[in-house]
Write a structure and sequence with these properties.
The complex is a heterodimer of chains A (120) and B (108). By secondary structure, chain A is mainly β. In chain A, 0% of the residues lie in helices and 54% in strands. The chains are: A mainly beta (120), B mainly beta (108). The A-B interface holds A 37, 46-49, 52, 60-64, 96, 98, 100-101, 104-108, 110-113 and B 1, 33, 35, 37, 43-47, 50-51, 56-57, 88, 90, 92, 95-102.
Chain lengths: 120, 108
């Protein structure tokens, strides 16, 4: 059973770069054909899909983040990462990493989430 | 971008009751690539339904999904105490993937 765990700083200053890592256990990130996604949720609000990276390395991002997002894979450490540049208070949220299933792109596996606060 | 609108925003119900949650899409969701998730406070969302009507692994059969095109529903046939939570629909047919704003099911 695949498990995901987010890690990274819980506090980022405005205008700086947010960097998070999702560590995958229970399977190799480079095997199979999966989408590895990031989703975020501001406190008390709904879910926003940020973007995804395919096993092949191709990426797809939500245009709402206006080109500030990069998702990459580190196969040697069985991790994938998220960076968001030029952050503002609006980027304060719980960030989740997730993976789809063998038989479809529904998000079946989720990390527990990590709260990132943007504040000086 | 496909906009998903969920209704109602909140429901107050008693254990044992039946409920139906609605999710309407701004355009047709191809291949019925529509999922439902349950989220409890402080937890990650849990996949309940995929492909509009298929229960995910380990999901009790009191949860069922239906619909196609632009109109989808999640039905809980008999509410158990652990079912009081927020429910989200999500389309994964078109990029960007989008979520509805959620329906909160509260205990009356």
């Amino acid at each position: 059973q695949v498990q995901l765990q987010e890690s990274g700083p819980g506090l980022v200053k405005p205008s700086q770069t947010l960097s998070l890592t999702c560590t995958v256990s229970g399977g190799s990130i480079s095997s199979g054909f999966y989408f590895w996604s990031w989703i975020r949720q501001p406190a008390g609000k709904g879910l926003e899909w940020i973007g995804r990276i395919y096993t092949s390395g191709s990426t797809d991002y939500n245009p709402s983040l206006k080109g500030r997002v990069t998702i990459s894979v580190d196969t040697s450490n069985n991790q994938f990462s998220l960076t968001v540049t030029s952050v503002t208070a609006a980027d304060t949220a719980v960030y989740f990493c997730a993976r789809d299933e063998d038989w479809g792109s529904q998000l079946a596996y989720w990390g527990q989430g990590i709260l990132v606060t943007v504040s000086s | 971008e496909i906009v998903l609108t969920q209704s109602p925003g909140a429901l107050s119900l008693s254990p044992g009751e039946r409920t139906t949650l609605s999710c309407r899409a701004s355009q047709s969701v191809s291949n019925n690539y529509l999922a439902w998730y349950q989220q409890k406070p402080g937890q990650a969302p849990r996949l309940l339904i995929y492909g509009a009507s298929n229960r995910a692994t380990g999901i009790p059969d009191r949860f069922s999904g239906s619909g196609s095109g632009t109109d989808f529903t999640l039905t809980i046939s008999r509410l158990e105490p652990e079912d009081f939570a927020v429910y989200y629909c999500q389309q994964y047919a078109n990029s960007p993937w989008t979520f509805g704003q959620g329906t909160k099911v509260e205990i009356k």
